[in-house]
Amino acid sequence: MSGAFRIPAAGRLKQAKTARFSFDGQSYTGIEGDTLASALLANGVHLVGRSFKYHRPRGILSAGAEEPNALVQIVRDDARKTPNVRATVQELYDGLAANSQNRWPSLSFDVGAVNDLASPMFSAGFYYKTFMWPKAAWKSLYEPKIREAAGLGVSPDRPDPDHYSSRYAHCDVLVLGGGAAGIAAALAAAETGVRVILADEQAEFGGSLRFESGARIDGQDGFAWAQGAVAKLAAMDNVRVLPRTTAFGYYAQNFVGLVERVSDHLKAPGHDLPRERLWQVRAKRVVLASGAIERHMVFANNDRPGVMLAGAARTFLNHYGVAVGRNVGVYTANDSAYAAAIDLKKAGVNVAAIVDLRDNPTGPVIDEARALGIEINFGRAVIRAGGKLRVSSMTVQPKNGGGERTIPVDAILMSAGWTPSVHLFSQSRGKVAFNDETKRFVPGTYAQDCVSVGACNGTDGLSGTVDEAYAAGAKAAKDAGAKAGKGSKPKVDASESWSRGMLGAAPGAGPDTTVKAFVDFQNDVTAKDIRQAVHEGMRSIEHVKRFTTNGMATDQGKTSNMHGLAIAAETLGKPIPEVGLTTFRAPYTPVTFGSIVSHARGPLFDPTRKTAIHPWAERQGAVFEDVGQWKRAWYFPKGGEDMHAAVDRECVGVRTNAGLFDASTLGKIEVVGPDAAKFMELLYTNPWEKLEPGRCRYGIMLREDGFIYDDGVVGRLAPDRFHVTTTTGGAPRVMNHMEDYLQTEFPHLNVWLTSITEQWAVIAVQGPKSRDIIAPLVEGIDMSDEALPHMSVREGKICGVPTRLFRMSFTGERGFEVNVPADYGQAVWEALWAEGQKHGAVAYGTEAMHVLRAEKGYIIVGQDTDGTVTPNDAGLDWAVGKKKTDFVGIRGMMRPDLVAKGRKQLVGLKTKDPKVVLEEGAQIVEDPRQPIPMKMIGHVTSSYWSQNCGRSIALALVAGGRDRMGDTLYVPMPDGVIEVEVTGMVFFDETGGRLNG
Amino acid sequence: MLLIRCPYCEEERPELEFRNAGEAHIARSGNIAGESDDDFEKFFFIRSNPKGIIYERWRHIHGCARFFNAVRDTVTDKFVMTYKAGEPKPSKLPKNGNEGVAK
Questions:
Q1: A280 has a pLDDT exceeding 80
Q2: Which domain holds residue A36?
Q3: Are A382 and A329 in contact (CB under 8 A)?
Q4: Which of A251, A743, A891 is opposite residue B32, by nearest beta carbon?
Q5: Number of cross-chain residue pairs from A and B with Cβ atoms under 8 Å apart
């Protein structure tokens, strides 16, 4: 027997298929097909959690996704401990282990429940008011304590071992919600042959047909019809049926996000299965069939375990075969709870009494309840529930006051009416409209190509719902381009129908009371809290929401929003539509980060770019640094060297003999075409027309505002062909910048731009012996200084493969950059390395490259410039073509502020103590004795220890820097002021003789 | 995620393939070096930033890589229409841009 409260004759589960599970360490037996909630109830367990603020004992309120109370932690293993799982959604599997949350030391004895006694302290706005003073205590004391006390479950503390998948899908008609409405709409659309996706959050389709025992469609029980219809849909080629799939967000242009829970319901999910799958669906038309959610009654102690929604009790009985009590009371303001009382009564459960707030309602369900001999009390209210860990009684009073009567019960089924689920409609930016007669918000003005059908549209009754949905499904298909379908509309033979109900606090929980009548269970918001918020000056419903936190819990106010709104409106003395609804936001139900991130984590988070020479550097034990997406060899430590020692050795090695450096990450763009030179003239400050093929030039690119954007050496391979290099990080934006001007400002130019960064591996060979290393491997290029002087380029062969051989230098030494097709990069590097060994060459990394270039005063765009530096500021006026009449930035450079005196200029700095290395980014002042805040006149942009100079060197941007040569300035640091002398930017080989050999 | 019609590819593609490139129809002077400070200020710094219809440049950067122009409503975020770079600013907009062009 799977629980003492299981009624074998009721429900649809197969009794033979049992499943063992545990809750807080206690073992129980359920049935396959149960949810954790139904299995617990079958075993008579109602107490499943403690509330967020007051730690009040809580039970199971609902049977679905709207559940605010029954949140548990599901533990599969050490790494898989999912908090805040709704017990009403979690499907049972054999071996499932769940724990209650937010209680210590145990669920039935929770120390935190002292908050309930102290509740006058914890009223609305408590956090805002109480923890304001002293200010410093917020960070050190209040916030950590509150964070510790807050939150329901415990986050897993290990990396998520599961994997998640992600799919894009397109369809003609996307139907969200698989109850009677959704199925009817999907049938109508599918019959036309268009592509249809039907999704529902539950494991089985059917929606409220799961509990509506009175529904009959096409001659069958409603739920059975639903299974047949969905099986038929699933067999169609043009239909995709997605159970356990929640549409959580509705975005622009019918783009809908859905999460499919693939394996959370399985005992032992195979590793080939993802845990969840994210569907990103673009639909031509969307049919919203999201149904309605029942509201609770707002009365004192309405949160006691055993007090639940009437529809939920019906679901537990009619679907899961579970009686939620043996002696139940019913409290309602509409007809639907009668059906629950009738079903339970017929199943043999005693119904102590129905308490109906309405004065003299009539109808078939009322007649039937009466005929079954159930006591019915009209015009009366339940003013409080008795009991603590489980409801034990309900106290009834005439709604206008009078004598009280207490009726013993072990469950109370309540219904204040049904709220249409307009969440997704509202997320689609549709505007809801308030129907004053039925007191509900329904879809009003549509903003997207979607349509709402059934209960979420305010349509009552199964017959009306199926008619509306079938017609809407057919129309959606037609609008998406379908021909007429050849199916037939499902025929509703018998249906249940109810509407109306009440909003706000019930009698006994009115403005003159201080009882705990909960509006929002999960965030512990009572009717009194909402009134208090209004009394304290909150006028907008958005402010009331934030002040009380009503509707802000993980259930997003699915049961509470309308009650909260009605109480606020009543207190404000305004009609409900004037107060307005709070905004519905995605996600509809909580979505895991895992499903959104999918495979894009760890090494797959961002692409890693490696050069052709990377494996060689790895073998040499290089330490790598990230430069954008690139991995670059930073330095090559030998024999236990630290970074400092390695870099010193590399720097000296390059200037003594030679060094090899992997420069493949440099951006490279080929500019080709009859107008290539004209284009270069416009994009760079330098003159290009007269640059002879075979020669190179250092180019500066500006933005239109006159500031330096990028730089690099450009070689002219032919009259119509330039090989342009850019900074490593700048390559994509430089390409974009060039394309922008070529396509939109200078489209008359006949030029093609091609990114060739990844096509060419680049090996820099620098140093006095560089030519000796390269020459033996080169064919077809005269390597003499006369034939190949500094700043020239030749095409030929090296190691038998094509090369573009540049003679150029970023070190100040005689130097070459050997470009070879990337596929040959490593082979050519290894050949050069072997030659280099004969000449004492070193491999050097980016750190040594930085030091060497700083010794020569060569700038790095983005390090020594920051987007506000002009060519003049950087001392690069010589690179601006004086006779040119146009280039990008020519006008920007002339702006008054850019030519004003006193601008920051790039200069060198030498510390008075040569051993002291400045910090990059350190600020520079004229007078260190001035009061704080000091006037800062510049900052250090580059700073290194230079073994070649035997001292520290630095570059800095200093106001009026070039007029301060020889001046002493100061760099105040936390542990003292550093004296520096302003110098030129070249620290090594000032005459530049080494460049030419 | 928005769908944007590339006028070169002649189809709607997801927003992820595109990059915005600022306001459209701001002509760079053929004699930019001779422009007054005021004219350069207008050209380089001043943008309309309207509430409602904006004419702006987009690039189909992860597609055909072409720059083109688009008319977008900054209130609804809907694209009214798109057209090729170099084509004149449309004098008339389609009545229901969402229906006519962006679909």
A1: yes
A2: 18-117
A3: yes
A4: A891
A5: 51
With the C-alpha atoms ordered A976, A979, A984, A988, is the resulting torsion angle positive or negative?
A: negative
Q: Is residue A723 part of a domain?
A: no
Same domain, residue pair A523 and A434: no
- Rounded to whole angstroms, the Cα distance separating A919 from A955 reads 11
Separation between Cα atoms, residue A458 and residue A450, nearest integer Å: 16
For the segment A367-425, what is each residue's pLDDT rounded down to a tens digit? 999 999 999 999 999 999 999 999 999 999 999 999 999 999 999 999 999 999 999 99
List CB contacts (< 8 A) between B2 and chain A.
252-253
**Would you kindly state where each structural domain of chain B is located, as residue ranges?**
3-100
The band of A110, judged by pLDDT with boundaries at 50, 70 and 90, is: confident
On whether any CB of chain B is under 8 Å from the CB of A400, the answer is: no
pLDDT given at position A27: 97
- Residue A533 and residue A475 share a domain: no
> For the segment A646-704, what is each residue's pLDDT rounded down to a tens digit?
999 999 999 999 999 999 999 999 999 999 999 999 999 999 999 999 999 999 999 99
Please tell me which residue of chain A has the smallest CA distance to B66: A743
ipTM of the complex: 0.94
Please check whether residues A530 and A472 belong to one and the same domain: no
Amino acid at A806: F
Domain boundary, last residue among A547, A563, A593: A593
In a domain, A427, yes or no: yes
Shortest Cα distance from A891 to chain B (angstroms)? Answer: 5
* CATH top-level class of B3-100: alpha beta
> Residue A252 is nearest to which of B2, B31, B66, comparing CB atoms?
B2
- Is-contact A835 A657, C-beta < 8 A? no
3-state helix, strand, coil in chain B (%, to 5): 15, 30, 50
* The token pair that represents A78 in the structure block: 């050490």
In angstroms, the separation between the Cα of residue B100 and the nearest Cα of chain A is 14
My answer on whether A283 and A191 are in the same domain is yes
Overall domain count for chain A: 4
Whether A183 and A34 map to the same domain: the answer is no
